[in-house]
Amino acid sequence: MFKTEISPETLTILTTYQCTAACKDCCFECTPQVSVKLTEEQIKDAILQAKLNFPLLKQVVFSGGECFMLKDTLFRSIALATSLGLVTRCVTNAYWAKNRSRANEIVRELSNSGLTEVNISTGLDHQRWVSLNTVVNALEVLVSHSISTLITIESDTETSTCLSDLTQNQRVQTIRKEHSEKFTLQVNAWMPFHKDSVTRQVIDIKEIEGGCDQLFNNCVITANGEIAACCGLTLEHIDEIKVGKINNLSDFIINQEDDFLKLWIYTDGPIGIIKTLMGFDYFKEHNVHHQCQACVMLHKDEAIKKQLSSTWKEHLIPTIQKFNLKKNGISVKKMEYV
Protein backbone atom coordinates (compact mmCIF):
# COMPACT_ATOMS: atom_id res chain seq x y z
CA MET A 1 0.00 0.00 0.00
CA PHE A 2 2.96 2.34 0.58
CA LYS A 3 6.74 2.41 0.86
CA THR A 4 8.64 4.61 3.26
CA GLU A 5 11.77 6.31 1.95
CA ILE A 6 14.50 5.33 4.43
CA SER A 7 18.12 6.48 4.64
CA PRO A 8 19.54 6.59 8.19
CA GLU A 9 22.05 9.23 9.22
CA THR A 10 23.43 7.23 12.19
CA LEU A 11 24.87 3.76 12.62
CA THR A 12 24.90 2.70 16.28
CA ILE A 13 26.97 -0.36 17.12
CA LEU A 14 26.27 -2.05 20.45
CA THR A 15 29.69 -3.66 20.38
CA THR A 16 29.25 -5.84 23.47
CA TYR A 17 26.83 -6.53 26.31
CA GLN A 18 29.74 -7.05 28.68
CA CYS A 19 30.32 -4.17 31.07
CA THR A 20 32.54 -3.33 34.02
CA ALA A 21 29.37 -2.32 35.88
CA ALA A 22 26.21 -4.27 36.73
CA CYS A 23 23.57 -1.57 37.15
CA LYS A 24 20.35 -3.06 38.52
CA ASP A 25 18.15 -1.34 35.94
CA CYS A 26 20.47 -1.77 32.95
CA CYS A 27 18.28 -2.02 29.86
CA PHE A 28 20.47 -4.76 28.34
CA GLU A 29 21.24 -6.48 31.69
CA CYS A 30 24.96 -5.96 31.14
CA THR A 31 27.46 -7.29 33.71
CA PRO A 32 31.15 -8.26 33.76
CA GLN A 33 30.04 -11.89 33.41
CA VAL A 34 28.24 -11.37 30.08
CA SER A 35 30.50 -12.42 27.20
CA VAL A 36 28.38 -11.45 24.19
CA LYS A 37 30.26 -9.21 21.75
CA LEU A 38 30.83 -8.54 18.08
CA THR A 39 34.09 -9.44 16.40
CA GLU A 40 36.30 -6.78 14.89
CA GLU A 41 35.48 -8.15 11.45
CA GLN A 42 31.74 -7.81 12.11
CA ILE A 43 32.12 -4.23 13.33
CA LYS A 44 34.26 -3.14 10.40
CA ASP A 45 32.02 -4.91 7.87
CA ALA A 46 28.95 -3.18 9.35
CA ILE A 47 30.61 0.23 8.96
CA LEU A 48 31.55 -0.49 5.34
CA GLN A 49 28.06 -1.83 4.56
CA ALA A 50 26.44 1.24 6.12
CA LYS A 51 28.63 3.58 4.11
CA LEU A 52 27.68 1.72 0.93
CA ASN A 53 23.94 1.32 1.60
CA PHE A 54 23.03 4.54 3.41
CA PRO A 55 23.84 7.63 1.31
CA LEU A 56 22.85 10.05 4.10
CA LEU A 57 25.05 8.35 6.73
CA LYS A 58 26.86 10.93 8.88
CA GLN A 59 28.01 9.26 12.08
CA VAL A 60 28.92 6.01 13.80
CA VAL A 61 28.23 5.55 17.53
CA PHE A 62 30.10 2.86 19.48
CA SER A 63 28.22 1.77 22.58
CA GLY A 64 27.33 -1.31 24.62
CA GLY A 65 27.70 -2.59 27.27
CA GLU A 66 31.09 -0.99 27.68
CA CYS A 67 32.73 -0.45 24.31
CA PHE A 68 36.13 0.44 25.83
CA MET A 69 36.50 -3.21 26.88
CA LEU A 70 37.23 -3.91 23.18
CA LYS A 71 40.52 -1.97 23.53
CA ASP A 72 42.48 -1.89 20.22
CA THR A 73 39.49 -3.20 18.27
CA LEU A 74 37.62 -0.05 19.28
CA PHE A 75 40.44 2.27 18.23
CA ARG A 76 40.85 0.58 14.85
CA SER A 77 37.08 0.67 14.22
CA ILE A 78 36.95 4.38 15.04
CA ALA A 79 39.86 4.97 12.65
CA LEU A 80 38.00 3.14 9.86
CA ALA A 81 34.88 5.25 10.31
CA THR A 82 37.00 8.41 10.43
CA SER A 83 38.75 7.44 7.19
CA LEU A 84 35.32 7.23 5.54
CA GLY A 85 34.56 10.82 6.54
CA LEU A 86 32.13 9.91 9.32
CA VAL A 87 31.67 11.58 12.69
CA THR A 88 32.32 9.16 15.57
CA ARG A 89 31.10 8.90 19.17
CA CYS A 90 31.77 6.51 22.06
CA VAL A 91 29.35 5.90 24.93
CA THR A 92 31.10 4.80 28.13
CA ASN A 93 30.92 4.73 31.92
CA ALA A 94 34.55 6.03 32.01
CA TYR A 95 35.88 3.15 34.12
CA TRP A 96 39.17 3.45 32.22
CA ALA A 97 39.98 6.83 33.83
CA LYS A 98 40.52 5.64 37.40
CA ASN A 99 44.25 5.86 36.72
CA ARG A 100 45.12 9.26 35.20
CA SER A 101 48.23 8.01 33.43
CA ARG A 102 46.32 5.17 31.78
CA ALA A 103 43.48 7.54 30.91
CA ASN A 104 45.93 9.78 29.06
CA GLU A 105 47.19 6.80 27.05
CA ILE A 106 43.66 5.79 26.08
CA VAL A 107 42.59 9.29 25.11
CA ARG A 108 45.71 9.71 22.96
CA GLU A 109 44.62 6.57 21.10
CA LEU A 110 41.13 8.02 20.70
CA SER A 111 42.55 11.29 19.40
CA ASN A 112 44.86 9.49 16.96
CA SER A 113 41.87 7.47 15.72
CA GLY A 114 39.99 10.68 14.99
CA LEU A 115 37.22 10.28 17.57
CA THR A 116 34.81 13.22 17.56
CA GLU A 117 32.89 12.86 20.83
CA VAL A 118 32.55 10.86 24.04
CA ASN A 119 29.30 10.44 25.95
CA ILE A 120 29.86 9.47 29.61
CA SER A 121 26.98 7.84 31.49
CA THR A 122 26.85 8.38 35.24
CA GLY A 123 24.46 8.81 38.15
CA LEU A 124 23.23 6.88 41.17
CA ASP A 125 23.34 3.37 39.67
CA HIS A 126 26.51 3.94 37.64
CA GLN A 127 28.42 5.44 40.57
CA ARG A 128 28.06 2.24 42.55
CA TRP A 129 30.63 0.92 40.08
CA VAL A 130 32.46 3.97 38.71
CA SER A 131 33.13 6.87 41.08
CA LEU A 132 32.43 10.52 40.37
CA ASN A 133 36.17 11.17 40.70
CA THR A 134 36.86 8.71 37.88
CA VAL A 135 34.25 10.40 35.69
CA VAL A 136 35.82 13.79 36.33
CA ASN A 137 39.26 12.36 35.50
CA ALA A 138 37.93 11.22 32.14
CA LEU A 139 36.29 14.59 31.50
CA GLU A 140 39.51 16.49 32.23
CA VAL A 141 41.66 14.28 30.00
CA LEU A 142 39.16 14.28 27.12
CA VAL A 143 38.72 18.04 26.93
CA SER A 144 42.48 18.54 27.26
CA HIS A 145 42.75 16.57 23.99
CA SER A 146 39.96 18.68 22.43
CA ILE A 147 37.47 15.80 22.33
CA SER A 148 33.91 17.01 22.87
CA THR A 149 32.42 15.38 25.95
CA LEU A 150 28.81 14.96 26.99
CA ILE A 151 28.01 13.72 30.48
CA THR A 152 24.58 12.10 30.70
CA ILE A 153 23.48 11.74 34.31
CA GLU A 154 20.54 9.71 35.57
CA SER A 155 17.75 11.61 37.27
CA ASP A 156 18.18 11.43 41.06
CA THR A 157 15.91 9.82 43.63
CA GLU A 158 14.40 12.00 46.34
CA THR A 159 17.46 11.39 48.52
CA SER A 160 20.37 11.09 46.07
CA THR A 161 22.52 14.11 45.14
CA CYS A 162 24.52 12.91 42.14
CA LEU A 163 23.61 15.87 39.94
CA SER A 164 24.46 18.55 42.52
CA ASP A 165 27.65 16.68 43.47
CA LEU A 166 28.70 16.82 39.83
CA THR A 167 27.77 20.42 39.11
CA GLN A 168 29.29 21.68 42.36
CA ASN A 169 32.54 19.76 41.89
CA GLN A 170 35.32 22.35 41.69
CA ARG A 171 37.14 20.56 38.87
CA VAL A 172 33.94 20.36 36.84
CA GLN A 173 33.24 24.06 37.41
CA THR A 174 36.73 24.88 36.14
CA ILE A 175 36.15 22.81 33.01
CA ARG A 176 32.79 24.50 32.40
CA LYS A 177 34.52 27.86 32.63
CA GLU A 178 37.61 27.07 30.57
CA HIS A 179 36.27 24.49 28.06
CA SER A 180 32.58 25.32 27.75
CA GLU A 181 32.66 24.64 24.02
CA LYS A 182 33.81 21.05 24.64
CA PHE A 183 31.64 20.07 27.62
CA THR A 184 27.89 19.47 27.81
CA LEU A 185 25.78 18.10 30.67
CA GLN A 186 22.31 16.60 30.40
CA VAL A 187 19.94 14.79 32.77
CA ASN A 188 18.06 11.76 31.46
CA ALA A 189 15.00 10.02 32.84
CA TRP A 190 15.96 6.71 34.48
CA MET A 191 13.62 3.95 33.45
CA PRO A 192 12.90 1.22 36.02
CA PHE A 193 13.08 -2.40 34.87
CA HIS A 194 12.09 -4.07 38.15
CA LYS A 195 9.04 -3.81 40.39
CA ASP A 196 11.16 -2.95 43.41
CA SER A 197 13.12 -0.21 41.63
CA VAL A 198 13.13 3.15 43.41
CA THR A 199 11.06 5.82 41.68
CA ARG A 200 13.29 8.63 40.44
CA GLN A 201 10.80 11.25 39.31
CA VAL A 202 7.15 11.52 38.40
CA ILE A 203 6.89 12.60 34.77
CA ASP A 204 3.84 14.24 33.25
CA ILE A 205 3.07 11.89 30.39
CA LYS A 206 2.32 14.87 28.14
CA GLU A 207 6.01 15.80 28.37
CA ILE A 208 7.16 12.56 26.76
CA GLU A 209 4.52 12.43 24.05
CA GLY A 210 5.57 12.88 20.45
CA GLY A 211 7.04 11.01 17.53
CA CYS A 212 10.12 8.83 17.88
CA ASP A 213 12.93 10.39 15.84
CA GLN A 214 15.12 7.30 16.32
CA LEU A 215 13.08 5.26 13.85
CA PHE A 216 14.37 5.26 10.26
CA ASN A 217 17.22 7.60 11.26
CA ASN A 218 19.33 5.24 13.38
CA CYS A 219 20.37 1.79 12.20
CA VAL A 220 21.41 -0.21 15.26
CA ILE A 221 23.58 -3.30 15.35
CA THR A 222 23.19 -5.30 18.56
CA ALA A 223 25.91 -7.32 20.26
CA ASN A 224 23.95 -10.41 19.16
CA GLY A 225 24.54 -9.53 15.51
CA GLU A 226 21.00 -8.36 14.85
CA ILE A 227 19.80 -5.18 13.16
CA ALA A 228 17.43 -3.11 15.28
CA ALA A 229 15.13 -0.30 14.22
CA CYS A 230 16.20 1.96 17.08
CA CYS A 231 18.55 2.15 20.06
CA GLY A 232 15.65 2.49 22.49
CA LEU A 233 16.08 1.23 26.03
CA THR A 234 13.59 -1.58 25.46
CA LEU A 235 14.80 -2.84 22.08
CA GLU A 236 15.74 -6.25 23.51
CA HIS A 237 12.20 -6.57 24.91
CA ILE A 238 10.33 -6.04 21.62
CA ASP A 239 10.69 -8.68 18.91
CA GLU A 240 9.31 -6.37 16.22
CA ILE A 241 12.22 -3.94 16.70
CA LYS A 242 14.58 -6.57 15.22
CA VAL A 243 14.59 -6.14 11.45
CA GLY A 244 17.48 -8.25 10.15
CA LYS A 245 20.96 -9.69 10.61
CA ILE A 246 24.31 -7.93 10.61
CA ASN A 247 25.50 -9.61 7.40
CA ASN A 248 22.87 -7.72 5.35
CA LEU A 249 22.36 -4.12 6.52
CA SER A 250 20.07 -3.41 3.56
CA ASP A 251 17.41 -5.32 5.57
CA PHE A 252 17.12 -2.17 7.69
CA ILE A 253 15.42 -0.55 4.70
CA ILE A 254 13.73 -3.56 3.07
CA ASN A 255 12.01 -4.78 6.24
CA GLN A 256 10.70 -1.38 7.33
CA GLU A 257 9.68 0.44 4.17
CA ASP A 258 6.11 -0.96 4.37
CA ASP A 259 5.83 -1.24 8.19
CA PHE A 260 2.87 0.94 9.12
CA LEU A 261 3.26 0.67 12.89
CA LYS A 262 6.81 2.00 12.78
CA LEU A 263 5.63 4.79 10.51
CA TRP A 264 2.96 5.67 13.07
CA ILE A 265 5.42 5.51 15.98
CA TYR A 266 7.73 7.85 14.06
CA THR A 267 4.99 10.43 13.56
CA ASP A 268 2.85 10.16 16.72
CA GLY A 269 5.01 8.18 19.14
CA PRO A 270 3.80 5.20 21.21
CA ILE A 271 2.04 7.41 23.74
CA GLY A 272 0.11 9.22 21.03
CA ILE A 273 -0.92 5.94 19.44
CA ILE A 274 -2.11 4.40 22.71
CA LYS A 275 -4.02 7.58 23.52
CA THR A 276 -5.70 7.44 20.10
CA LEU A 277 -6.57 3.74 20.38
CA MET A 278 -7.50 3.48 24.04
CA GLY A 279 -8.04 7.00 25.38
CA PHE A 280 -5.80 8.96 27.75
CA ASP A 281 -7.36 7.37 30.85
CA TYR A 282 -5.70 4.09 29.89
CA PHE A 283 -2.41 5.49 31.21
CA LYS A 284 -3.89 5.90 34.69
CA GLU A 285 -3.57 2.15 35.12
CA HIS A 286 0.11 2.12 34.17
CA ASN A 287 3.14 3.84 35.67
CA VAL A 288 4.90 5.13 32.55
CA HIS A 289 8.17 7.02 33.06
CA HIS A 290 9.62 6.89 29.58
CA GLN A 291 8.57 6.82 25.94
CA CYS A 292 10.28 3.42 25.56
CA GLN A 293 8.06 1.97 28.29
CA ALA A 294 5.03 3.04 26.28
CA CYS A 295 6.54 1.34 23.24
CA VAL A 296 6.62 -1.96 25.15
CA MET A 297 2.97 -1.45 26.10
CA LEU A 298 2.09 -0.80 22.48
CA HIS A 299 3.72 -4.06 21.35
CA LYS A 300 2.82 -6.32 24.29
CA ASP A 301 -0.53 -5.21 25.75
CA GLU A 302 -3.20 -7.54 24.34
CA ALA A 303 -6.03 -5.00 24.54
CA ILE A 304 -3.98 -2.42 22.64
CA LYS A 305 -2.91 -4.99 20.05
CA LYS A 306 -6.52 -6.03 19.46
CA GLN A 307 -7.65 -2.45 18.96
CA LEU A 308 -4.69 -1.74 16.69
CA SER A 309 -5.40 -4.79 14.57
CA SER A 310 -9.03 -3.81 13.99
CA THR A 311 -8.62 -0.06 13.36
CA TRP A 312 -5.15 0.59 11.89
CA LYS A 313 -6.43 1.18 8.34
CA GLU A 314 -8.40 4.19 9.57
CA HIS A 315 -5.12 5.88 10.50
CA LEU A 316 -3.06 4.96 7.43
CA ILE A 317 -3.65 7.99 5.17
CA PRO A 318 -3.38 10.65 7.96
CA THR A 319 -0.16 9.00 9.19
CA ILE A 320 1.43 8.98 5.73
CA GLN A 321 0.52 12.65 5.36
CA LYS A 322 2.08 13.48 8.75
CA PHE A 323 5.17 11.46 7.84
CA ASN A 324 5.68 13.44 4.66
CA LEU A 325 5.24 16.72 6.54
CA LYS A 326 7.73 15.67 9.22
CA LYS A 327 10.29 14.51 6.66
CA ASN A 328 10.05 17.94 5.03
CA GLY A 329 10.64 19.70 8.33
CA ILE A 330 7.05 20.86 8.78
CA SER A 331 5.84 20.69 12.38
CA VAL A 332 2.73 18.63 13.03
CA LYS A 333 0.65 20.16 15.83
CA LYS A 334 -0.05 17.73 18.65
CA MET A 335 -3.64 16.91 19.44
CA GLU A 336 -4.87 18.43 22.68
CA TYR A 337 -5.92 16.20 25.55
CA VAL A 338 -9.62 16.26 26.36
Helix-strand pattern: EHEHEHEHEHHEEEEHHHHH
> Helical content, roughly?
25-40%
Which stretches of 5+ consecutive residues score pLDDT under 50?
Answer: 334-338
Question: Which secondary-structure class do the elements indicate?
Answer: alpha/beta
Give the integer mean of the pLDDT values: 89
State Rg: 20 Å
CATH architecture type of the largest domain: Alpha-Beta Barrel
Strand content: 5-15%
CATH superfamily of the largest domain: Aldolase class I
Give the domain tally.
Answer: 2
**Tally of DSSP helical segments:** 11
Principal-axes shape call? globular
Strand order of the largest sheet: 6-5-4-3-2-1-7-8-9
Largest sheet, strands/sense/barrel: 9 strands, mixed
Number of strands: 9
**CATH class category name of the largest domain:** Alpha Beta
Distance between the termini: 32 Å
> What name is given to the CATH topology of the largest domain?
TIM Barrel
Task: Walk me through this protein's architecture.
By secondary structure, this protein is α/β, with parallel strands linked by helices. The protein has 2 domains: 192 residues, Aldolase class I (TIM Barrel, Alpha-Beta Barrel), CATH 3.20.20; 68 residues, no CATH class. It is built from 11 helices and 9 strands. It has a 9-stranded mixed beta sheet with strand order 6-5-4-3-2-1-7-8-9. Strand 3, helix 3 and strand 4 form a beta-alpha-beta unit. The C terminus is likely disordered.
